[in-house]
Amino acid sequence: MENNNYYILLYYCYAKIENPEEYREQHHLFCVENNIRGRIIISDEGLNGTVSGLKEDCEKYMAYVHADPRFAKTEFKIDEHDKHAFTKIHVRYKPEIVHSALRHLDPNVKTGKHLDPEEFKKLKDQEDVVILDVRSNYEHELGRFKNALTLDIDNFRDFPEKVKELEHLKNKKVLTYCTGGIKCEKASAFLLEQGFEDVYQLHGGIIKYGMEAGGEDFEGKCYVFDNRIAVDVNKVNPKVISTCHVCGTDSDRMVNCANPSCNAHVAICEECGWKMEGACSDECKDHPEKRTYDGTGYYQKNTNGYNPYKGLKRSGNKNQITKLEGEPTNS
Would the pTM of this model clear 0.85, i.e. be above it? Predict the structure, then answer.
């Protein structure tokens, strides 16, 4: 039996941050001191992260976030795990907490009506309802709600352009959903701006729906942005909807192509995974920079020179790390 002594946390919060670079350093330092790993984005408009750590360290981290009045309303989706889901900590400043090309929209001012998982479950099958998946192709190809409308987009920043194809749905109830809820905040706000009147969003996203409503009618697996790659959601009526990219058999085993120049996110069955050495094609298999495949299909992202310990030193207390004066922690 596995000892699930770790948590994986998924969260976001739209809140004005006056000095995001300064806060990034403070936040980063807390993570290093408490062995929190993962990827966190700090922006003028808020914060967005997925992190892992021992349960007691994650409890400290959640308390740290909630203690700041700006982020007191942050809701954490908490999943138990048997180890860290990340190998490093990255806390970066970016202009948006999710790249949307919709910086003018503030979800704290106007966004779609939030539905908790049970409310979403009751509403999703009504006649005048459209369930809209606002995620990228590789995500909804692996798993999506039964009868959901999907968009042909490679990145969320392409969403605004695709909304032009949805004009005929303006008289419907539109229920948006994504992995954890963050994309829906901007997506539903944009739909309202474009004249859609009855717009909703699944609060907490697919992850919360699986935890609180059993995941009913979510078909396939949910792509996640940590080393698990994909997770089960549906405990009621699960179904595999994706096929192996190589041989075409049913498979919900997600792999990032071993060729870093490709890095396609595709379903590849275990047999083909080993046969192709984690590559999605013969061309990628023969690529000179192909990464070593370990059976998972997960590879640590390129850090682009980011060093989480730069500008930090250990004090006399071996467990305490402090920032060197005058040195940046972000390279």
Answer: yes
Q: Is 262 a catalytic residue?
A: no
Give the DSSP letter string of 72-102: TT---EEEEESS-S-SSEEEEE-SSSS--S-
CATH number at residue 51: 3.30.70.100
Residue 155 belongs to domain with CATH number: 3.40.250.10
Shared-domain flag, residues 70 and 142: no
Kindly give, in sequence order, each residue whose CB lies less than 8 Å from that of residue 206, ignoring residues fewer than 6 positions away: 143, 177, 178, 179, 180, 215, 218, 222, 233
* pLDDT tens, residue order, the chain (331 aa): 468 999 999 999 999 999 999 999 999 999 999 999 999 999 999 999 999 999 999 999 999 999 999 999 999 999 999 999 999 999 999 999 999 989 999 999 999 999 999 999 999 999 999 999 999 999 999 999 999 999 999 999 999 999 999 999 999 999 999 999 999 999 999 999 999 999 999 999 999 999 999 999 999 999 999 999 999 999 999 999 999 999 999 999 999 999 999 999 999 999 999 999 999 999 999 999 999 999 999 887 655 555 655 555 544 444 455 554 444 333 2
- What is the rounded distance in angstroms from the CA atom of residue 330 to the CA atom of residue 220? 38
**Whole-angstrom Cα distance, residue 180 to residue 184?**
9
Are both 271 and 218 inside the same structural domain? no
- Tally the domains of the chain: 3
Catalytic residue among 31, 58, 178, 284: 178
Last residue of some domain: 196, 223, 250? 223
Q: What is the DSSP letter of 250?
A: B
CA atoms of 36 and 9, how far apart (whole Å): 10
Residue 322 lies in a domain: no
Structural domain including 254 reads: 242-294
